[in-house]
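Priority: low. Protein: Olfactory receptor. Input follows.
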Amino acid sequence: MHTMWPNISAAPFLLTGFPGLEAAHPWISIPFFAIYVSVLLGNGTLIYLIKDDHNLHEPMYYFLAMLAGTDLTVTLTTMPTVMAVLWVNHREIRHGACFLQAYIIHSLSIVESGVLLAMSYDRFVAICTPLHYNSTLTNSRVIKIGLGVVMRGFLSLVPPILPLFWFPYCSSHVLSHAFCLHQDVMKLACADITFNRVYPVVLVALTFFLDALIIVFSYVLILKTVMGIASGEERTKALNTCVSHISCVLVFYITVIGLTFIHRFGKHAPHVVHITMSYVYFLFPPFMNPIIYSIKTKQIQRSIIHLISV
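Result:
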């Protein structure tokens, strides 16, 4: 029965690990746990270094700290339910907790895209208008951009997540992942979900797709400026500051595109492929970002060495 009150009394949802591989769950949990620990250590260290080292108190590193914070939060949001399913086969999740988890996961995906966009703006200003860099990217402007990116992510996810509380769930309660995703929960509702189908498509177009277009456009302008620099050494130096960011952008958008293609065209692919791809999407960028920045950024390398040698 569809009442005006949230459907709290209904049976809890059941999370799913790797169907058919339940016996191997304890073994599968080992690489998962190792990746989770590296993500927490890598991103936690980045945030600590940027906070602690005065040489890293620059807009570029503030945005990097935001990226690390986003990766850290999304990992802490998925980790408890994934490890509970793999370790002790604890599959039940209450509706409220499930919707909240989906809300945080999806919001942070949009935040991550926004932070990558802000980072490309930072590189654009640094390379195309270097004399105005300090006056353009002041601390207050960096804070405003950061707040804008976070607000965009969290506000844009309210419309599709809110109806989930009111939908009746009368048939299956089994979700296809070890964490809650909007598209997964929505399919279990015994209600008209047209809005919940259409809204995410529009949202993805206006966030991920638009962000990616602006990032590409900003790099076209950056390349144009760099090619106009006379000395080869200066050119290399300018491009080097962009390599880390380009790598993170590629890691993020390639996993987004990969996941989309698997969902759209991989109808006949084994279910395990779909599930593995969604884990890659949530774990690969947070795992790679600290590695990319510590390999490619001299100041962060110096900061790490300083931290170790103290």
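The longest helix spans residues 95-128. The CA atoms of residues 102 and 181 lie 5 Å apart.
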